[in-house]
Known about the structure:
Elements: H1 2-6, E1 17-22, E2 31-37, E3 47-51, H2 52-56, E4 64-74, E5 77-87, H3 89-95, E6 102-110, E7 116-125, H4 131-149, H5 154-163, H6 165-174, E8 180-191
Parallel strand pairs: 1-5
Antiparallel strand pairs: 1-2, 3-4, 4-5, 5-8, 6-7, 7-8
Helix pairs in contact: 4-6
Amino acid sequence: MAKAKRRRVRDTWKEKSWYNIKTPVVFGDKDIGETPARDPDFLIGRRVDVTMRELTGDYSKQYIKLRFEINNVAGDLANTQFIGHQITTDFVRSMIRRGTSRIDAQVIIKTTDNVKIKLHVLAITTRRSRSSQQKIMRESIIKHVKAVSKSRDFENIIESSINGRLASEIYHIIKKVYPLKRVEIIKSTILE
Length: 192
């Protein structure tokens, strides 16, 4: 019993150091948080989610979540790489109403600098559309996104899908098939 009292519990929390997490240069090399670790090697592969509002200060972009993964550590800085983005489910749900149609199109593209990206495009019509019209719209989305990817690099594709420019291009092409309420790129994933 006396030996058990003498034995000290090692406090592993005191052994940890704090590291600042930075976004890639594409996103302005900004601080997005801090994380503790006993060894810098334990940080590699750790994922961080940040809303667009936290990054830019723009409250209208609160619904966009960016995902980063720590890929290298230098001193007390943990650098990240972009691995995808997603729009919150409650925002997607708020766009869809009764009497409208939801058209989902998933496209795997390769940019000019050989990065494979999977994009999930969502189009919402003003009224319910027939399945034949939905099929034409889905094919048009896939065709346009693949055509765009052949002339743009990774940075440009990601920037245009997050800020809504690519969704706007798709909207103007598809509205000729059927009246649309909205087009959003609700998810992007960088494929290895």
